[in-house]
Design a protein that fits this description.
Radius of gyration: 15 Å
Distance between the termini: 22 Å
Number of helices: 0
Shape: globular
Number of domains: 1
Largest sheet: 6 strands, mixed
Number of strands: 12
Order of helices and strands: EEEEEEEEEEEE
CATH class: Mainly Beta
Length: 133
């Protein structure tokens, strides 16, 4: 998988103040801060996290909702290189006849709790948009 490009984002996450969610920040391949909606000009958006994360959170995948009728949701697992990089690539369709397709994306992180049991932390939706080419 590529680690740079116009639709590749590095994600940094930490547990939010409620202890229930992963608060995420994103940078694009040029190192600039990226804000929602994140543009995905091609058919794939990719999220990378350098491991080990200082916060202890590890990107394990993403829940993705597409724009079909009716909408469907699926889990996309991360490809993880032990101790180096966690990557999730997400297809962003652009159905014919529509100017853009939007998918809801919730990144899923894991961290061991104080008892050594993995706990999952969802991100807020970074909203990926594909305006077409």
């Amino acid at each position: 998988m590529a680690t740079s490009g116009p639709n590749v984002y590095t994600v940094t996450a930490k547990v939010d103040a409620t202890g229930k969610y992963a608060h995420c920040s994103y940078t694009n391949s040029g190192g600039s801060s990226a804000k929602s909606p994140l543009p995905a000009p091609s058919a794939v958006a990719q999220f990378n996290q350098v491991l080990p994360s200082a916060s202890g959170l590890q990107l394990v995948g993403a829940m993705v909702t597409n724009t079909t009728t009716p909408p469907t949701t699926s889990f996309v697992p991360a490809s993880i290189t032990e101790g180096k990089l966690s990557q999730v690539s997400i297809s962003v369709p652009n159905p014919s006849g529509l100017p853009q397709a939007t998918r809801g994306v919730v990144l899923v992180f894991s961290m061991l709790n104080s008892s050594g049991v993995p706990a999952l932390y969802p991100s807020s939706d970074p909203q990926i948009q594909n305006p077409g080419t």
